[in-house]
Amino acid sequence: MGIKVIYLADRMENVHSDIRGELYLQAIKMQSEGIDVLKLNTGNPAAFGFPLPESIRKAIEGHEDKAVAYCDFRGMPEAREAIARYETSKGIQGLTADDIFIGNGVSEVVNFALLPLLNPGDEVLIPTPNYSLWSNTILLAGATPVYYRCDEQSHWNPDVADIRKKVTSRTRAIVIINPNNPTGVLYNTDTLEQIIQVARENKLIVFSDEIYDRLVMDGLKHVSTASLAPDLTVVTMNGLSKSHSLCGYRCGWMAISGPRAQTEEYRKGIVQLTSMRLCANALAQLVIPAALEDMETPNAMIRPGGRLYEQREVTAKILDQIDGISYVKNDAAFYMFPKLDMKKFNITNDKVFARDLLEATHVLVVPGSGFNWPEHDHFRLVLLPQADRLQEAMTRMGEFLDGYHQK
Question: In this structure, are strands 234-239 and 205-209 parallel, antiparallel, or unpaired?
């Protein structure tokens, strides 16, 4: 009697996570063979020596017993109140703790936000390039991600004319990722207002992923999308993974703003999902009030002399010296999305480029196609290693590209 093969469900066909895909597995195999691989594939600060902030340590020590039992399925009241205060301080109107839902990272919260909204055949406008969590979740909901283009020539700001062209009768929502992953740029307020107007005219819900809002450099200011649209339903996503180096704590949230009457039914679906999950990590929720009072931790990383600032400067300096690479300097987060000269390097497949780079230099990057970028001419750099290690990696990359010609 033969073995019956278990096949994947059809919904998995276009789901992908290149950040931890085949190249990542190849890098892990290389490491198991004793090869020192610099993994620039994921934004995981603690893996590069960013310490646990003292504010977080103090918030936990002596209070561990408070996190032993299940808590409110929406999140601990003190944590939700702290989040409501924080988001209100960003200019979002009318928020209370009842508008906040805490999850095990923004990854889980995105599921809670999209699944109650979408039916098969629905469409969601989403930027390209984008963090594939969004496109994957839309696909798993049975809906269709429709990609609007961000314009590299306009500092990677979204092309609003392209957004307008892609709205159809099936469009339910627009996703904004600001500051953006993978480009690391901060959108300007005029662009945000134009996107909001598209949503207003077409009665669309707006999802605004703002996880990097506390990691904005060069004196620039992040403007929360919802602060510009009190008349619209906006779901703002945020968390502590990046600003306080707490990826492993899995601590994210969403804040639902806008006319309450519009979202009563929608919120019932979110309640159904969050109550099924029982509760988010209670130990992580203990630290939310302290973390949102502790702005010095993120500020220390992004000012001149801080790690993120200096690591960005080193990377930019080396990239400037590599023939065949251009880039838009990031002004937030810890990513850049450089562009390769496709003609010079004969690149027809960005995954092959990333594989060749890994095998020759032992540096792992994620190709642009992993972020749903349609051309094969970009890749994402993670700027988290110490400056000297980044300098070494960029130098190796430059030496690799000198004479590289994809077969």
Answer: parallel
What is the 3 state secondary structure string of 1-70? Answer: CCCCCCCCCHHHCCCCCHHHCHHHHHHHHHHHCCCCCEECCCCCHHHHCCCCCHHHHHHHCCCHHHHCCC
Say what the pTM is: 0.95
List own/partner pairs for 135-140 with CB under 8 A and 24 or more apart.
Answer: 135/372, 136/15, 136/16, 136/17, 137/110, 137/111, 138/114, 139/11, 139/14, 139/15, 140/11, 140/15
DSSP track, 270-307: HHHHHHHT----HHHHTTHHHHHH--HHHHHHHSTTSH
Q: For residue 193, which amino acid is it? A: E
Cis before residue 385, ω within 30 degrees of 0?
Answer: no
Q: Residues 6 or more apart from 375 whose CB is under 8 A from it?
A: 342, 368
According to DSSP, residue 118 is labeled -
Dihedral sign for Cα atoms in the order 342, 346, 349, 355? negative
The closest of 334, 368, 373, 383 to 150, measured between CA atoms, is 373
Cβ neighbours of 200 (radius 10 Å) = 13
Name the DSSP class of 216. B
Task: Work out the mean pLDDT of the chain and round it to a whole number.
Answer: 94
CA end-to-end distance (rounded Å), the chain: 45
User: Per the structure block, which two tokens stand in for 201?
Assistant: 């005219």
Token reading at 350: 């960005």
Mean pLDDT across the stretch 30-48?
92
Q: Provide the 10 A C-beta neighbour count for residue 296.
A: 11
Residue range 343-377, pLDDT digits in tens:
999 999 999 999 999 999 999 999 999 999 999 99
What six digits make up the tokens of 41?
A: 């594939």
Q: How far apart are CA 106 and CA 253, in angstroms?
A: 6
Helix then strand count (H, E) for the chain reads 15, 15
